[in-house]
Each structure stands twice: as structure tokens, then as C-alpha cells.
Write a structure and sequence with these properties.
By secondary structure, the chain is an alpha/beta fold. It has helices at residues 16-19, 33-40, 49-57, 110-115; strands at 30-32, 59-61, 76-81, 87-93, 104-106, 123-127, 133-143. It has a single domain, classed as Roll (Chitinase A, domain 3). The termini are far apart. It comes from Acidovorax lacteus.
């Protein structure tokens, strides 16, 4: 039995940049009018660029119309770190109430700015101060002031 030669396989030249998008898709974010108003009162010179962009581009709804699965100010949610799989419970708060070790993320921090307005199932992305990329998926909104009827937080 004679061996037959296999047909030549065409060479395909690809680079990693050919297979990966150059930019990430925009994150769908929704803010309440109250959160937008309160955050706009913070010193604009102190707003991180990611938060300023969020305030400029997010969908804005009345505080009585926000879906209960959106991370709003003072909301508590369960997130999963996409790099490690670790799950954490975090509360998005104003700078005066922040304590990262206790799971209270300031909205002025890169992580807090990334989380604001993200829907359950969505992914928050940010870069830390050293430039490293991070991402967490919002698994569940455990408490949202608007859903609880608490509009004073």
C-alpha cells in the first residue's frame, strides 16, 4: 500500500492583535438623577476621569424608576473577581464612608467609579493606580437604597 501525500495546508499569518478587539465594548450604565446631582456636587477637579466619563455618558433615570439590579450610590452587591474567581460583598459609598478593607469602596476610587451604574450580570472594569487592569462581575445587588425606598442616602 502506497502512502499518499496530504494536500498542502495554506499558511495563515495572524497576530494576537488580529484576534482581539483593540477596545473593550462600552459598559451599559444607569444612574439616578439624585446620584448624578450628588456626584456632580463633588469637586470636579477631584473626579477621576472614569467617573467624569460615567457621569457624562450613563443613562439617567428618576430615582423612583431605577431597576433594582443596578449598583447605585450606597448599594451593596456581591461581585466576583474575574481573574481569581473570589467573591466579595462591597458597598459603593462616598469618600467619607470609604474603608476598602471593610468592603466599602469610594466612588472616587478606580474600583468604585468602575462599579457605579453597572447592572447585575454586568462587568465593572478599571485600572488601579499602578496601571493594572481589574474586572469584577456583579452577581447580585443585595441592597439598593432606591429599591428600599430610602432616598436620603
Amino acid at each position: 500500500m502506497a502512502l499518499r501525500a496530504l494536500p498542502a495546508v495554506p499558511k495563515i499569518s495572524m497576530t494576537l492583535s488580529d484576534t482581539l478587539p483593540t477596545t473593550l465594548p462600552p459598559i451599559e450604565r444607569t444612574l439616578t438623577q439624585l446620584d448624578l446631582l450628588r456626584l456632580s456636587r463633588l469637586d470636579p477637579r477631584g473626579l477621576p476621569p472614569a467617573l467624569a466619563e460615567c457621569l457624562d455618558t450613563a443613562d439617567v433615570v428618576d430615582h423612583t424608576d431605577i431597576a433594582p439590579d443596578v449598583v447605585t450610590m450606597n448599594a451593596e452587591c456581591r461581585v466576583q473577581d474575574l481573574a481569581t474567581g473570589a467573591q466579595h460583598t462591597v458597598r459603593l459609598c462616598y469618600p467619607a464612608d470609604a474603608d476598602p478593607a471593610a468592603g466599602r469602596w469610594s466612588v472616587l476610587s478606580p474600583a468604585g467609579a468602575g462599579l457605579l451604574g453597572v447592572h447585575c450580570g454586568g462587568t465593572a472594569r478599571w485600572r488601579d493606580l499602578q496601571g493594572r487592569a481589574h474586572a469584577v462581575q456583579v452577581l447580585e445587588v443585595l441592597y439598593q437604597p432606591e429599591a428600599a425606598g430610602d432616598f436620603t442616602r
